[in-house]
Amino acid sequence: MNALGLSMIVKMGCICSRESININGSRYTVKERLGEGGFSCVDLVEETSTKKKYALKRITCHSIDDQKVAMQEINYYMKLRHPNIIELIDSTFKGSADIVVQATSEAYLVLPYYKRGTLHDYLTLRSFNKNHLDVNDILRIFTEICQALKFLHDFTPDPIAHRDLKTANVCLTENMDPVLMDLVIKNSCRFLCSCKSADLWGAGCSEIAGYRLERCSMTYRAPELFHVESYCVIDQRTDIWSLGCVLYALLYFKSPFDIVYERGDSVNLAVISGTIYFPQDAPFSDDVHELILFMLRVNPTERPFIDDVIAKTTSLKNKIENVV
């Protein structure tokens, strides 16, 4: 057999071996793996009849509790309709989780496919050449992220906190509009930490009032989630801290605490100290830095709510436009 014939067989074998998944009567062919995390993976899939591409998120559930978390994510996506929050196209469960018999189930979420990928991907590419975004583009993207967060924080009847806001959880459309994704946590906006719960957290407990610490990325995590005070109130202002880290990343390509992590220093200590370093040769004004510091206040009671952030951002945009 010649090389061409062998090559054709190999290619045909690859095509034949591609996974095909049926979700509520629609068949999808898996094209490639887009990404993996600790709790899920995302594949690029193509709907067989329309040839349209989607992102298929698979969440492996090892327990009934895991299934509840996955179902909660699906329910949130079904309720939320906002141009800057990702839309759920379809979903289903396959199998049933059972710890006793070591069985797992899988949740399948069909989501829009964004060719540009995430804001993290985009900023990483620009960082290679230190190609900073224009401040007007930064504030436009940031404002749209704020509007999505406001929609969550003002949601009725129960306000929602994202709890894992970061550049990797923001997709970008072809027009460079941000779209929030990954609402995977118990998202009650506000809960009270008792003395007992604070002690448990300090002893290494990873959950308080249904809040799973490991689902919140360390370099975007608010100080009150590193060190829980007795009888404190944890509310939606954890998202405001993360939002400050996102704005810093829009300026300098990564969270200020990513830099700490990469040096091998303690992120915990850096976050609790609240010390933020801005590059000396930065092409941005002090006003933009002040907006970041406005959000990165260690004491959550001194941290602004989303409406305050939007008002300050609007004022800054107007000031920049008047200067131009």
UniProtKB/TrEMBL annotation:
Keywords: ATP-binding, Kinase, Nucleotide-binding, Serine/threonine-protein kinase, Transferase. The keyword Transferase applies. It holds the Pfam family Pkinase. Residues 28-316 form the Protein kinase domain. It is an enzyme of class 2 (transferase). It catalyses: L-threonyl-[protein] + ATP = O-phospho-L-threonyl-[protein] + ADP + H(+); L-seryl-[protein] + ATP = O-phospho-L-seryl-[protein] + ADP + H(+). Its EC number is 2.7.11.1. One of its GO terms (cellular component) is Golgi apparatus. One of its GO terms (molecular function) is ATP binding. InterPro entries: Kinase-like_dom_sf, Prot_kinase_dom, Ser/Thr-specific_kinases, Ser/Thr_kinase_AS. PANTHER family: SERINE/THREONINE-PROTEIN KINASE 16, SERINE_THREONINE-PROTEIN KINASE 16. This is non-specific serine/threonine protein kinase. It comes from Aromia moschata.
